[in-house]
Design goal:
Elements (H helix, E strand, L loop, with lengths): L2 H13 L4 H20 L2 H4 L2 H5 L4 E10 L5 E12 L5 E7 L5 H17 L6 E6 L8 H15 L8 E4 L6 H15 L20 H18 L9 E4 L4 H12 L3 E7 L2 E4 L6 H13 L5 H7 L2 E3 L11 E3 L9 H9 L4 E3 L8 H9 L3 E3 L1 H4 L2 H15 L5 H25 L6 H19 L5
Parallel strand pairs: 3-4, 3-5, 6-7, 6-10, 10-11, 11-12
Antiparallel strand pairs: 1-2, 2-4, 7-8, 8-9
Bound molecules: NADPH dihydro-nicotinamide-adenine-dinucleotide phosphate (NDP) and (2Z)-2-iminopentanedioic acid.
NADPH dihydro-nicotinamide-adenine-dinucleotide phosphate binds next to helix 9.
């Protein structure tokens, strides 16, 4: 490894030794930036790597809230404002018991490069809390979201920082957060959050965008091999927002999705999860808030609490649950079973060894920061519509999302070729996202 890159990597480990997923995300990016760092000495001269790995600002706060018995509960909240070189901070909020500063630093760091790739003016951020929405009543979630916003409101705004959803944060949570923001500030109709409900400023297609976008990206990868989605067998993990709409788009394009999962287990439906079954899943997960096991009971298919869908034979794999959910053994099984393409709907779902296995086997492999960028892209389109005080139709937003995914594929593909490793989408996406942020930081002076 280049000595400059190595010293930056060693630096982050020394400063924050207890943040392994953050180290993992940084290493993956730094390793692939090597050809750009060598070609352009200015990045070292202006200390760009040291600056880009360090968040501009980390906000941490306490979130007291009252549960259904009137007992005061306490959670920890964060907002990591990572990089504002190309626009206001932008990125989701995650509500999950595993949330720590290190986890959100990994996600905020990734977001900076992802947002740059979209071509829209958005900086990078991430936030959330170790609050567990599972098993909570709507009132408890509302109490929590209101308390969360009582602190967050002073740090966000359409020209400052624009949060959105992520794991555990969907339409319900964004609604409560937006309601609280309006009450606290008396500012209405500003795009302080994206993923809002349709009736109060949300963009059409934002709910669908991450899943649809991931499939659009996979379509572009397949095109490079004169192939398409029709007739393909697809394994999807997760059963939340990204998994649901990735499944919908695959089915619309003539592919067959045979798996879904949640943190308890996974189902295998060899006949395919068609539109009717998917509507049932959406009701199960978004309304009844049940477990994927119930799908197996309802549709009489296999369910397993052990292992993962990656043991199944499929053409395309779309990991859409969480980080590090595909290990080396599972990647090997996918390759042995003939997988052609892997598109990361989730953020960093494949461990580094799994990525190596895919790349060595010449599997078309799309890293999350390229493949799942459709979500934040459509958040950017929501910001644009709110500024105009006007809405585009479903077809208009979908066409713009599609074009953005085609562009991101083109940037990643052409950049990989330009820097000597054609078809390496990790290298292409990392360098492609990096150059714009780094050049903006240099142009705006050393304080940026
Ligand atoms: P949801 O909360 O809607 O769904 C998450 C799904 O993943 C659920 O099925 C959940 O199961 C499962 N899951 C979560 N944590 C774990 C875990 N530790 N182990 C196993 N399964 C787990 O979230 P999204 O669909 O929005 O997010 C999924 C992924 O996509 C995340 O990596 C997120 O960062 C990424 N992403 C999301 C975007 C968006 O617009 N929403 C945009 C870009 C990326 P269970 O219910 O049992 O917890
Ligand atoms: O990881 C992501 O890109 C998201 N969770 C979406 C962020 C956003 O601002 O829409």
């Amino acid at each position: 490894m280049d000595s400059y890159i190595e010293s930056v990597y060693e630096g982050i480990k020394e400063k924050d030794p207890d943040q392994p997923v953050f180290h993992q995300a940084v290493l993956e990016v730094l390793e692939t930036l090597e050809p750009a760092i060598k070609k352009f000495p200015k990045y070292k001269e202006f200390a760009i790597l040291e600056r880009i790995v360090e968040p501009e600002r980390i906000i941490q706060f306490r979130i007291p809230w009252k549960d259904r018995d009137g007992i005061i509960q306490l959670n920890r909240g964060f907002r990591i404002q990572y990089n504002s070189a190309i626009g206001p901070y932008k990125g989701g909020l995650r509500l999950h018991p595993s949330v720590t500063q290190g986890l959100l630093k990994f996600l905020g760091f990734e977001q900076t490069f992802k947002n740059s790739l979209t071509g829209l003016p958005m900086g990078g951020a991430k936030g959330g809390s170790d609050f567990n929405p599972k098993g909570k009543t709507d009132s408890e979630v509302e109490n929590f979201c209101t308390s969360f916003m009582m602190e967050l409101y002073r740090h966000v705004g359409q020209f400052i920082d624009v949060p959105a959803g992520d794991i555990g944060v969907g339409a319900r949570e964004i609604g409560y957060l937006y309601g609280a923001y309006g009450k606290i500030t008396n500012l209405h109709g500003t795009c302080v959050l994206t993923g809002k409900g349709r009736t109060f400023g949300g963009s059409l297609i934002r709910p669908e965008a991450t899943g649809y976008g991931t499939v659009y990206f996979v379509q572009e990868m397949l095109k490079t091999r004169k192939d398409d989605m029709k007739g393909k067998t697809v394994c999807v993990s997760g059963s939340g927002n990204v998994a649901q709409f990735a499944t919908e788009k695959c089915t619309q394009l003539g592919a067959k999705v045979i798996s879904l999962s949640d943190s308890s287990g996974w189902i295998h439906d060899p006949d395919g999860i068609d539109a009717k079954k998917l509507a049932w899943v959406m009701d199960l997960k978004n309304v009844r808030r049940g477990r994927i096991k119930e799908y197996a009971e309802h549709f009489k298919v296999d369910y397993s609490a052990k292992g993962s869908p990656w043991s199944l034979k499929c053409d395309i794999s779309l990991p859409s649950a969480t980080q590090n959910e595909v290990d080396a053994k599972e990647a090997k099984a996918l390759v042995d079973n003939g997988v052609i393409a892997v598109g990361e709907g989730a953020n960093m779902p494949c461990v580094p060894e799994a990525v190596e296995i895919f790349q060595e086997a010449k599997v078309l492999y799309a890293p999350g920061k390229a493949a799942n960028a459709g979500g934040v892209s459509t958040s950017g389109l929501e910001m644009a519509q709110n500024s105009m005080r006007f809405f585009w139709t479903r077809e208009e937003v979908d066409a713009k999302l599609h074009q953005i995914m085609v562009n991101i594929h083109q940037i990643a593909y052409e950049t990989s070729e330009k820097f000597g490793d054609k078809g390496n989408y990790v290298l292409g996406a990392n360098i492609g996202g990096f150059l714009k942020v780094a050049d903006s930081m240099i142009a705006m002076g050393y304080l940026s």
